[in-house]
Amino acid sequence: MASFLRSIRERLARRRSAQSRTQPPRPAEALPEEKVSGAEEQSLALKELALPWQTPSGRTYSFDEELDRSLQELARRERRSKQDIASELLSAALAQRGFAEANLELWRALSPREQQVTALVCLGYTNRQIAGQLFISIETVKTHVQNICRKYGLRTKNELRQAMEGWDFSSWA
Asked: Which of 37, 70, 82, 96 has the fewest Cβ atoms surrounding its Cβ within 10 A?
């Protein structure tokens, strides 16, 4: 489902980019500038995905054919409407984005040393290996791991690995 959500985002971005090169920008009332709640954000996103929808200025938008076929096929297989499928996918994407943003804020709150330790933990290094790599004691590694877990609201290194799943730490090795 994550790759499907990514493809939706990429297609919408490509369509917006192509439209911005060939058409004037959408009216200000169609662009949410201020902070909106998750439900409002989902509603605005659903308007963008509705097939077709029209802006107050009269401009009409719709899915591209490939995305529309994908949604129709998924809706057919699950015996649900395209709107239900789109709503669920957008809800999942917004939740995933919120989680990713929170994770990034937590990451930025870590000290550079804690970031190094986190990266090595996520790469599967043991405390002893981390200590050797960073030239610190095993006890210092344990302290860093405890502080990192506390900041993330976690209890174990495995929970930390799960929270950071999907992050690429290969350059930290």
From this structure: 37
Q: Is the pTM of this model over 0.70?
A: no
Alpha-carbon gap, residue 120 to 110, rounded angstroms: 14
Find all residues with CB under 8 Å of 79, minimum gap 6, and list them: none
57-89 tens-digit pLDDT: 766 656 688 888 888 999 999 999 988 888 888
Which 8-state DSSP code applies to residue 63?
-
Domains by residue range for the chain, with CATH: 2-25+40-100 (no CATH), 110-172 (1.10.10.10)
Alpha helices in 23-153 (DSSP H): 38-49, 65-78, 82-109, 112-122, 127-134, 138-152
Go through 74-101 and write b for each residue having 16 or more CB atoms within 10 A of its CB, e for each that does not: bbeeeeeebeebbbebbeebbeeeeeee
Query: Is 151:109 a contact under the CB 8 Å cutoff?
Result: yes
